[in-house]
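Weekly structure sync, notes
Attendees: PL (lead), two postdocs, one rotation student
Agenda item 3: pending single-chain targets
PL asked that the sequence for the first pending target be pasted directly into the notes so everyone works from the same version. It is reproduced below exactly as submitted, 116 residues in total.
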Amino acid sequence: MAVSESYRDFVLEQLGRVTPVTGKSMFGGVGIYAEGLFFALIAEDRLYFKVDDATRPEFERRGMEPFRPFGADSAMGYYEVPADVAEDVGQLEIWMKKAIDVAAAAKGGKNKRGKP
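Predicted structure, written out during the meeting:
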């Protein structure tokens, strides 16, 4: 799950344009937090956002794959973010806020915007 420093810096800078984020090294990748919530990760120079049943279809429509740290049978609740979304702060903001809301709901609490 190696992550290049340049990709890590790019992603954290882009996400930070939307809201403050923190990246923490973990298992060779990077866990990304906003509003006290783990909502994204970087692995193998790919950005993944947390999804639920409501947000997953948009990722699938775009042909994005789930994060599978241990092979084909190990899909987790994170999907790869399309490159054009990661590069466009306007689109990124929409997708990122949804991922933060999913993380808040999964945690059973509310995020700082007051959404469950």
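Discussion points:
- Helices lie at 5-16, 56-61, 83-87, 89-107.
- DSSP finds four helices and five strands in the chain.
Action: rotation student to compare against the earlier draft before next sync.
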